[in-house]
Structures
1.
Amino acid sequence: NAGVTQTPKFRILKIGQSMTLQCAQDMNHNYMYWYRQDPGMGLKLIYYSVGAGITDKGEVPNGYNVSRSTTEDFPLRLELAAPSQTSVYFCASSYFGGRNYGYTFGSGTRLTVV
Amino acid sequence: QKEVEQDPGPLSVPEGAIVSLNCTYSNSAFQYFMWYRQYSRKGPELLMYTYSSGNKEDGRFTAQVDKSSKYISLFIRDSQPSDSATYLCAMSEETSGSRLTFGEGTQLTVNP
């Protein structure tokens, strides 16, 4: 049981480049989330999805896009990377919003934009 | 005002100390309360989970919820260097599908 798998683990991007952060879960969770974590700033929600074909914005969606074509996968797309997007990105999943069992997090993607 | 406020730390204690980590919240609809532990360069992992008020104990860890004061705590007894991590509180409303709201985390270092 792999849980939540994120790829890549590390990436350096140049300003203006684009990339997709991959996230896959094998627990048949219906909810999935993308967070960014900056030093001392906690977790900030970027986008979330309550099921295949349904996505919604979180606190800090600007500069990002998501899609959810299957239950398992929830990729995060960065267009025109900026230094402000340097952060650690975590994908998470849960049953029905996480109130009963919490979230399962991936191990993160460390992104540096130079 | 943030919905969840967490003591920012950082906190540094000697091995064997009792550690108290705390969060306050403003949303009286929160019913589910959790603590996550995050080791350096890792994703958060669920440590403790409680529903409504009361205490829950799991080994050296005790989670306490006081809904009347809108205050939750995590106590670590006989702290170990392996407890060194960032601890995040999280909470959720009763409504099905309600997302977790996280505190900003407290970094704990337990010195041998």
2.
Amino acid sequence: EDKVVQSPLSLVVHEGDTVTLNCSYEVTNFRSLLWYKQEKKAPTFLFMLTSSGIEKKSGRLSSILDKKELSSILNITATQTGDSAIYLCAVGDRITLVFGKGTRLSVIA
Amino acid sequence: GAGVSQTPSNKVTEKGKYVELRCDPISGHTALYWYRQSLGQGPEFLIYFQGTGAADDSGLPNDRFFAVRPEGSVSTLKIQRTERGDSAVYLCASSSTGVGEAFFGQGTRLTVV
């Protein structure tokens, strides 16, 4: 059975801190790994990583895929209160996306 | 449309009733997914459409759940004889490529009382 595990499940940091969120997976037919940010109901797309694109960066956010270790990290530097959200990792297999439970990040001023 | 649209945004129904949840995907997106998210959990796959056909419905929990996409655009998730355990946020997503960048709607929060 395909599985995606995220850690930690929750995290509280102060503004300006740097955080690293982890995602590991076991998927039979790996195609891609995606990161989403969920603040209320709709997850919003952050990054997609594939075998041909193992590192992505956008502003203070960056992500790396380690296909050998079957894992990915999401880094957020200089955190702001607006970064508070649930961060979801999802792995695309042949058909669909399998999600982890998410990491709840709280950034306090 | 500009994004994935789901209606209603909230639905409260009595146990045993029938409900329909609607999803209007991004125009031109052939792939459409339904997910269900319970509190403290990640989204759980229900069904995937490629065009008009259900390419994978292995995530539907039982035969009370059914989904259609008759014209390859709007999809409706139908739940018969609702139970309190069906209470969750139902998310719809669409993608132009399938298992690429899937874009989610705001979801429908279903509460069965």
